[in-house]
Fold these 2 entries.
Entry 1:
Amino acid sequence: MQQKVISNYEAAKELYAQHGIDVEEVLSRLEKIKISMHCWQGDDVRGFLNKDQDLTGGISVTGNYPGAATTPEQLRADLEKAFSLIPGKHKVNLHAIYADTDEKVELDQIEPKHFQKWVDWSKEQGLGLDFNPTCFSHEKSKDGFTLSHSDPEIRQFWIDHCKASRKIGAYFGEQLGQTCVTNVWVPDGYKDVPVDRLAPRQRLKDALDEVFAEELNPAHNLDAIESKLFGLGSEAYVVGSHEFYMGYGIQNNKLICLDAGHFHPTEVISNKLSSLSLFTDGILLHVSRPMRWDSDHVVTMDDELIEIGRELVRGDLLDKTHIGLDFFDASINRVAAWVIGTRNTIKALLRGMLDPIEALKKAELEGDYTTRLALTEEFKSYPFGAIWDFYCAKLGVPVREEWLADVKTYENEVLLKR
Ligand code: RNT
Ligand code: ZN
């Protein structure tokens, strides 16, 4: 390890120790946290099952940066490259359309065997897997409705797809010895103001009851449900709103997924974690970055990411929170997008752990808001970067922007040749 990285670390460690922060303990805690990296940044949410279908469901990927993965082998190679630049051991989040099979299989017929290559690879790489049914980009979802569709046949198709997905999740969990989170998100909604807001929600509720009817071993699979405020083409009404899923999740013991991009512009998920934690056994996060109409920009170290990190640490919520990422940007190198978003998310957790939490809580309890603000602000320029650099070096990944050269080489040698 570079001498400079070590000496900067030692100096920073001492500064933090003066506030009672045990940096070594922090780093060993950080190392245990797994981030679920979403496979779909690697190929613009295309997948391999219905390749010629357009991306639908009210989400959109813009940009035409070269090098997108077009085969499972390419996607896995890109994921490996990204993971080699990110400290720690993590998970990959798959969607059903990423099945790796030569069979022409319909979504309601998918089975664990169609994902065996992903399982074998994950074992070999020491990774966990999470899963999602894909209720979009399909002939049967083209009018914007799936689980809440008014046509019972179409509804049944999506119910069967979600049921099949949970079984695949359970298989992942059992095979890899770590719980898989299977997250249900459906795009269902109306472009314009509906007459009947209730009936689709009633249908969604009933459909979910069917999807979740079979008990699965929670050590293998945990179910999550994800709400949204609006999508492209569902501006006026989304069936699966936040209230809908919050109610459903609490009543039925499901993980509630909070996507950072799925709320009103000034509404933040960091302020929801504490409340939800009091009423649920677990939470799933889709760490993302909303911008105007888009909910899925690459995660940067913005105020909200810092606040999410703080909340998870301060509320002691890391054990009950599953941290996933959700963004897709096709205007930059896709491997870099993963590396930037994932490193930032881990770094935000580190920053949260390096705050003088006890002193801040004490000041707040005593009504000393001056100290609270002063300490908070001073700590923003404490040398967390030196701790981060050491952590990266210790776990054998590039320090600071060194990783970029590696991505550029990969781009020239692999991505641009596709
Ligand atoms: C869409 C949801 C959902 C998707 C992925 C691809 O708004 O956030 O999580 O982004 O399932
Ligand atoms: Zn999401």
Entry 2:
Amino acid sequence: MSPHRVAFIGLGHMGRPMARNLHAAGHPVTAFDLSDAARAEAQSDGLAVAGSLEDALRDAEVMLTMLPAGKHVLSVWREALPQLKPGTLLIDCSTIDTVSASAAHDLARDAGFASLDAPVSGGTKGADAGTLTFMAGGEPEAFARARPLLEAMGARIVHCGAAGAGQAAKICNNMILGVSMIAVAEAFVLAERLGLSAQALFDVASTSSGQCWSLTSYCPVPGPVPASPANNDYRPGFAASLMLKDLGLARDAAQASGATTPLGQHAHAIYEAFVDAGGGEADFSAIIRRLREGGTAVG
Ligand code: NAD
């Protein structure tokens, strides 16, 4: 593997461990974040840290962004593009709306650069362990160049198709996840009312047609799956606020594309009510608490 000089922009919960893994795999990383605290943490990880975006981009062969939302990605890419050396590859690993993802690809293409959207699943644990799944969209040549870098941060790398296909895969997957978690939680609430034990429901559903990841990995009641956040007072895991963000992206994409996603929209409303009531920091499986209580968006 030939090392790539990477400018890594965005050193938050995900970006910091991802940058660390790239560095550990032998890629020279220069990291930048607007936050002084994030830069100091990256420095304590042994990364080269730049004091400005411009300094981070000097000599970069790849610019990788891991930022909160589409507006941040577009703003950094707009500022960066005039400063990049010819041939630099741009990779965005953030989870962003499909419209901004297309706009970012257009900006890069118009300036003569190759680009890839490559959002991830696996959360902070996967980022730490270097076991993320990457879902990539872009030209095959861009994907081939990015692959060794993504392999340094992930265990599963999937080329989903043309520009934007990675973001599309990410939000479709997470819409399934949000809807299926609510379905699983509803079943446990109904079972409680019917006098059926959680373990009995789990034993049947986990080996029957109700089987799904929300049940077998993130079971929303304590007991049947010892490692699920329900056994740890619903500490994330995958925070409900992030699920709400992804369901919002799915809803926006459905509106923009004319797709009909009634359950995705209802799941968004249920998570929105939960987050508005203060549940945003809890794991998304804690939605079972709201379903037990009942609530306006649920009724
Ligand atoms: P975070 O808020 O912890 O980190 C984002 C970082 O970007 C912050 O440190 C912030 O200071 C920095 N930043 C913002 N604007 C900037 C700019 N203009 N220039 C430089 N730095 C800037 O977020 P996170 O949890 O690391 O998530 C990053 C992305 O990954 C999001 O799109 C999120 O949806 C996605 N994601 C997160 C998880 C998760 O479990 N946290 C899982 C999968 C995907």
